[in-house]
Every structure is written in C-alpha cells, then in structure tokens.
Amino acid sequence: MKFVWPPITKALDERAQKIADGLAAADKAKTELAVANKRVEAELATSRNETASRLADAERRAQVIIEEAKARAAEEGNKIIAAAKADAEQQTVKAREALREQVAALAVKGAEQILRKEVNAGVHADLLNRLKTEL
C-alpha cells in the first residue's frame, strides 16, 4: 500500500485538479460570453437607435423638401395665373379699343348716310375723339 497508494492519490489529485481547472475555465468562458453578449446587445441597441434617428431625420428632411416644392409650385402657379390675367386684361383692352374704333367708323358712316354728305375726319377730329371716348 505504501508504494501503490501515493501514485494513485497523486493521479487522483491531478485528475481532480484538471477537472477543477476545466470547470473554472468553463465558468470563466461562460462569464466572458455573458459579457460579450451584453456588449453585443448594447451595440445593437445603439445601432438601432442611430438607425431610427437617421430614418426620422430623413423623413423630416423629405417632408421639408416636399413642403418647399409645394410652396415653389404654388408660387409658380400664382405667377402663371397672374401673367395669364394680365395678358387677358391686355387683350380685353385691345379688343375694346378695336371695338371703339369700329363703332366710331360705323357712327361716321351712319352720320354720312343720315346727312347724305361726307364727313371729313380731319376737320371733325375733335368731334370724333369725343365720340370715341363716350363709347
């Protein structure tokens, strides 16, 4: 027993030490894994927050761009409408002026017919101008 027992106990002690070291290493690895998982979760949370923030910023910027485009389109539409109204007003003034000229000419012709003599436009220019303004 004296010769057999010490090597067996030594082998058993070494085996127990190896098992204890293995269990300690497993516990250490498990702790490191938990820490790594926490770090990964923190990074993922940060990444999600940044992504959400960037998406929100992009959406806000898109809304601003859309509103600016609407404002520019409305402004441009108002300019086009104003130009069209001004053009229509000018055409109306021209049409009225042409109509006055035609009515004045018809009035002179009617007066000639009534009086049965020619009315001289140069001599009666003042009278004809008053007639145009009255019409």
Describe this structure in words.
- The chain has 135 residues and is an all-alpha fold.
- The protein has one domain.
- Helix content is 90%, strand content 0%.
- The protein contains two helices and no strands.
- It has helices at 5-115, 125-134.
- It is rod-shaped and about 165 Å long.
- The model has no long low-confidence stretch (mean pLDDT 88).
Residue-averaged pLDDT, rounded?
A: 88
Strand content: under 5%
Compute the number of structural domains.
1
Stretches where pLDDT falls below 50 for ≥5 residues?
A: none
Task: Please tally the β strands and state the result.
Answer: 0
What is the C-alpha radius of gyration, as a whole number of Å?
A: 52 Å
Q: Would you tell me the structural class of the helices and strands?
A: mainly alpha
What characterizes the major β-sheet?
none
- Order of helical and strand elements: HH
Termini separation (Å)?
A: 147 Å
The residue fraction in helices comes out at over 70%
Continuous helix count: 2
Outline type: rod-shaped
Compact summary:
The chain has 135 residues and is an all-alpha fold.
Sequence-ordered SSE layout with sheet pairings:
Blueprint: H1 5-115, H2 125-134
Main attributes of the structure:
single chain, 135 residues, mainly alpha, 90% helix, rod-shaped
